[in-house]
Design goal:
By secondary structure, the chain is mainly beta. It has one domain: Glycosyl hydrolase domain, family 43 (Tachylectin-2, Chain A, 5 Propeller), CATH 2.115.10. 3% of the residues lie in helices and 47% in strands. The strands form six sheets. It has a four-stranded antiparallel sheet with strand order 2-3-4-5, with no helix packed on it. Strands 6-7-8-9 form a four-stranded antiparallel sheet, with no helix packed on it. The N terminus is likely disordered.
Length: 305
C-alpha cells in the first residue's frame, strides 16, 4: 500500500466521521450490511435530538472514507414516524427469497413506554423504504435491537426486554414478523438482559455482544458465547479493558470484514452526548474474535490491509 493510500484509508478513532460533503456522518445507532463490495450503514439523523428526523444511509470500503448515499426513511406528519416519536437502531437485512431489503427499527414514545419493533422494506438498498408498522414481538417489550443472518437465510432478531432478558427471535421467512424465541439471556446475576445487541459467528461459536442498562452513561460492555443459537449461553465477559467503559462507548455493530488478512471484525460504538446527539462521535476499532475470546484494544489510528 502506498503512503497516499494508507493516509486516505486511515481510520482516526476519536475524530468526527464526515462524508464526501464534509458533513458529520449520522452513524448513530448504526446497522451495517455488506453488499456488492461495500459496507452500507444506516444511522439515526439527530438534528432534532432524541426525536425522529430520518434514517440516513452511508457506505464505505474501508471505514475511513464515507459516502452519503441518501435518506432511506423520512419523518411523516403523524403515526410511528411522526415528529414527536422515537425511532432508533436501524438495522437492515436482505431477503433473497423476496427480493426485499428489510429495515428493523426500535419504535417508541418519548417516555419509552411503548417499546415496539418497526418494519420497513424496499427493493432498493438505499431506499426509500416503505414503512409497514410496528408491534411487540410475541407480545414482549422491544427496545434496542440487532439482527443477524445465517448463510441458510435464517433471519435472527435480537431484542432487549428489560427484566425478562435479551431475546433471540427466529424471523418469519419474509422477515416481517417473528416466529419464535430461539433463546434468552440475562446478566450473570440474573437481574435483567443486555441492550444494544450484536451477534457474529466465528468458527463453531456464536458471539453475542451487549451493553448494560445505564442510560446515556457508558459501561463495560460484555460478550457471551454459545455453540447454537438456542444456547446455552456462557457467562458474560468483558471484551475491552475492565473499567474502560468500552473506551467510553456503547456497542452498536460488530461487523465481519471480508478480504482482510489481519482484521477480522470491526467494532462500531456510540459515544452518546445527550446534549449534542448530532455531533456525538462513533468510535471504530478493529476487533479480535475467535477461540471463545473477544478483545478490543485502543488504537489512535489504523487501516485495513
Amino acid at each position: 500500500m502506498s503512503p497516499y493510500q494508507q493516509t486516505a484509508a486511515t481510520v482516526r478513532t476519536a475524530t468526527a466521521v464526515t462524508d464526501q460533503h464534509g458533513d458529520v456522518a449520522q452513524l448513530h445507532g448504526v446497522g451495517v450490511l455488506f453488499h456488492e463490495g461495500r459496507y452500507y450503514a444506516w444511522g439515526e439523523e439527530k438534528s432534532a435530538g432524541a426525536l425522529f428526523t430520518s434514517v440516513e444511509c452511508y457506505s464505505t470500503e474501508n471505514f475511513a472514507v464515507w459516502r452519503h448515499e441518501g435518506t432511506s426513511l423520512r419523518r411523516e406528519g403523524a403515526g410511528d414516524l411522526g415528529p414527536q416519536r422515537i425511532v432508533e437502531r436501524p438495522k437492515v437485512l436482505f431477503n433473497s427469497a423476496t427480493g426485499y431489503f428489510v429495515m428493523f427499527l426500535h419504535i417508541d414514545s418519548p417516555d419509552y413506554a411503548e417499546a415496539r419493533l418497526g418494519y420497513a422494506r424496499s427493493t432498493s438498498l438505499i431506499g426509500p423504504y416503505e414503512y409497514l408498522g410496528s408491534s411487540r414481538p410475541l407480545g414482549n417489550s422491544s427496545r434496542d435491537i440487532g439482527v443477524y443472518q445465517e448463510p441458510s437465510g435464517l433471519g435472527v432478531l435480537m431484542s432487549e426486554d428489560r427484566e425478562n432478558g435479551l431475546h433471540l427471535y427466529r424471523l418469519a421467512p419474509d422477515y416481517l414478523s417473528v416466529e419464535s424465541v430461539l433463546s434468552t439471556t440475562l446478566r450473570n446475576d440474573g437481574s435483567h438482559g443486555y441492550e444494544s445487541p450484536g451477534l457474529v459467528r466465528v468458527g463453531d461459536l456464536y458471539y453475542l455482544f451487549g451493553s448494560d442498562l445505564t442510560g446515556w452513561n457508558t459501561n463495560d460492555n460484555k460478550f457471551a458465547t454459545a455453540a447454537s443459537l438456542e444456547g446455552p449461553w456462557s457467562e458474560w465477559h468483558d471484551f475491552a479493558p475492565p473499567g474502560s467503559r468500552t473506551f467510553d462507548s456503547q456497542v452498536s455493530a460488530v461487523v465481519p470484514v471480508l478480504g482482510s488478512s489481519s482484521v477480522s471484525h470491526i467494532y462500531i460504538g456510540d459515544r452518546w452526548n445527550q446534549h449534542d446527539l448530532y455531533n456525538s462521535l462513533p468510535i471504530i476499532l478493529p476487533m479480535s474474535i475467535g477461540g471463545g475470546h473477544a478483545s478490543l484494544s485502543w488504537r489512535d489510528e489504523w487501516w485495513l490491509d
